[in-house]
Amino acid sequence: GLLVNKYKWTKVEESERVSYMEALEKHHGYEIHNLEMRRKVHLHNETDEPKTLQIDWSFPGEYESGDHISICPENSQENINFLLSRMTSIPPMNIPLQLTLAEECEFAATHDLPSGTTLMEMLIHFVDLSSVPSQDVLKLFSTCAIDSKEKERLTNLSENEEAYQTWRKDAMKGICGTLEDFPSVTVDSAQLLSQLPLMRRRTFSVASSGTENKVTLVVGIVGYHTPNGEPKEGLLTGHFLKMSPGSVIPGFLRKADYRLPEDMSRPVIMIGAGTGIAPFKGFWMKRLAQKQEGHEIGKIMLYFGCRKRNMELLKTETDQLRKMGIDFERRDALSREKGEPRQYVQDLVREDGEKIYKTWMEEDGVIFICGKVAMAEEVGQVLRNILEVYGKMDKEEATQVMKNKKSQGSYQLDLFG
Question: Which residues contact 344 (CB under 8 A, 6 or more apart)?
Fold first, then answer.
């Protein structure tokens, strides 16, 4: 149960002050860098579709194509200012703090807010203001509401599971949006922060080859409407849209096992949709650099799925590769192009079954898939079917071959959502 006034702020010694970067490192368990935005470009101009950005960041660490970068989101100053206007018992903003129990209590829930950072740092980098409030938070709001109708509504939402689930689904409001709907609520700052979840990192596949002091990301902007018709944007990708070159955001590198084969002459088949093209850009840049160093490069096949023809991401760049002497084939599946049949990336893989079988099985090629889990499952079924048809295998044999290919690194997946 929630006890009101369970928490309070305690000032910690100046010697125990912790920078937000140190606190983020402790929270995520990785070395954090401030990534500086160098360049941002839109990759398509289809106005009715979600935007896709290519963003270059300065990055001091070493990495390889196929690795991941996680970005630590930040809350907007606008939301923080609004929240401050609705909180009471606010401690000085620039002193190092710790959230402690107001009195010893046996059943106190633990919280993960970093100790030794300032309130402003907690509000910018740690507490998740965009998540829909839990029933415990609504219960806290109900105890603070002055207006009786608001108190009643909040109490109902915090106690009635069905009412809460309906509200949660329809309103899709974060902490600030919820407080806007209940203007008579002001809440003790220590109590509120003790109840809020911490922000989760957002992870992206690297779209560069690790040869210069920068890292490139290909980012799909999250935009949607709530069931009530309000437009919303993702916390981090909305922030990317507003950021301009020179601004910084904390992030860290996560090594992955998604790797081009050591033998540069082995052919590569890349299958992906949408921002799933990101690691492939890193791969072809690496192959291009190897070719320019005089190495023999195997052929590259790209199967890419998108909605419309002018969303064929990085097409100019891949066309250029052919002009530079790389054996590069690209096929695009369009699922929403007017006047053309709907096609998905797995349909192209099926059509090219014989060629893919030959490249993968007889020429020792490597297949990479990147994108959403559902797409990868569909493509996986088509690949198994290709093995059955052209390799004259039964289902068990084909499944076993795919398992073997996976363990040998000849069938690699980088999946999200």
Answer: 273, 305, 333, 335, 375, 378
Cα 115 from Cα 118, distance rounded (Å):
9
CA distances from 205 to 74, 198, 414 (A): 20, 23, 8
DSSP state letter for 3: P
d(CA 149, CA 127): 29
Q: Record the pTM.
A: 0.91
Q: How far apart are alpha carbons 319 and 220 in whole angstroms?
A: 22
Nearest to 45 by CA among 234, 380, 385, 310: 310
Q: Helices (DSSP H) in 196-258: which residue ranges?
A: 235-242
How far from each other are the two terminal CA atoms of the chain, in whole angstroms?
Answer: 34
| pLDDT digit string (tens) for the chain, length 417 residues | 455 558 999 999 999 999 999 999 999 999 999 999 999 999 999 988 999 999 999 999 899 999 999 999 999 999 999 999 999 999 999 999 999 888 766 555 557 899 999 999 999 999 999 999 999 999 999 999 999 999 999 999 999 999 999 999 988 899 999 999 999 999 999 999 999 999 999 999 999 998 778 999 999 998 888 888 888 888 999 999 999 999 999 999 999 999 999 999 999 999 999 999 999 999 999 999 999 999 999 999 999 999 999 999 999 999 999 999 999 999 999 999 999 999 999 999 999 999 999 999 999 999 999 999 999 999 999 999 999 999 999 999 999 999 999 999 999 999 997
Q: How far are the Cα atoms of 173, 180, 252, 325 from residue 226, in angstroms, in the given order? A: 9, 16, 32, 48
